[in-house]
């Protein structure tokens, strides 16, 4: 719900504003406004920027110095400013084509504003819009957090409250979680560890998600949690069809715009009662975990499709899983086992429906070598891999092993 640069174009005090360049940056969020004026060195006016400001200048220190204006635009880009508004009048009479070209290249929205428009009125209206947006965003975040993480009963009609914020949650709804794959690993790979860089990554990720959902006409309430984005969505067929397309686009956009970052998606079951959204959230997270257990990134997984994992994840007593795994696969999984790749061979063999030829090709083994190893596995585990029940027992143990890791 944060206010974007394009949102200020709707304000009454900015009816005479004119966009001359940097249209590609109109979706940038505005954190605050900043009137940057300095008589001696105009560039001093931008060194205090924190990022996200929309900057206003009358040009009193720049005047007709084209080089200073270009440096000013570059400085705003380096400081992650959201845009620049030039008060056209006695100091700057017009914005040059070179400045417009630079704003387009850097995607810094560049506006001109007639001199007669009072900056004090503009700054007051933008400030009020930002504050109201933050109040509404905090209220919505509190409302959603109470549904998903609160301990008590929901107060009043939750669907009606959602409608107050502009969201239709009537009928069946489910939770969708979009999670950054291996976020800590990604930060280490990119040599990022400071709080500002991490926060910027999360903000950009959230913006990608929001923009793509908006593009597919999916107006959904969103909440952030750690390195994931969570949102409610109606489970009617039309919405889910658009969601499928949007999720694939989000994965592609994240990879392209965030230096190879991948994300996985989990979708919980649908429920008509919003009180059940906690359950749907848990299911969505388990769907993602089931993919992680299989060493998969960049997946889109529905809870209803994770089969045996939904049962195994529900076993709260870890020792039950550990005992089952040890009883079934202990002889080939312990550190005492002389052949430590037997588990890998067994899993591949079962995944290929016990086909010796295909399994041997994928493992780069001779058929006779694979036959010998399969026989050895059967002897160690006291099982017959031509027997359906034995195969099922072993497959469950393999899945448990992934969960235990």
Give a concise summary.
With 405 residues, the protein is an alpha/beta fold.
Architecture overview:
There is one protein chain. With 405 residues, this protein is an alpha/beta fold. It has three domains: 5-126, 3-Layer(aba) Sandwich (Udp-n-acetylmuramoylalanyl-d-glutamate--2,6- Diaminopimelate Ligase, Chain: A, domain 1), CATH 3.40.1390.20; 153-312, Alpha-Beta Plaits (2-Layer Sandwich), CATH 3.30.70; 316-404, Arc Repressor Mutant, subunit A. It contains 14 helices and ten strands. The chain has helices at 66-78, 97-106, 119-149, 158-164, 183-189, 195-215, 237-257, 277-293, 308-313, 318-333, 342-351, 356-363, 367-381, 388-404, and strands at residues 18-21, 32-35, 53-57, 83-88, 110-114, 173-180, 222-225, 228-234, 263-267, 300-302. The strands form two sheets. A five-stranded mixed β-sheet has the order 1-5-4-3-2. A hairpin with a 2-residue loop joins strand 7 and strand 8. The protein is elongated and about 90 Å long. The model has no long low-confidence stretch (mean pLDDT 87).
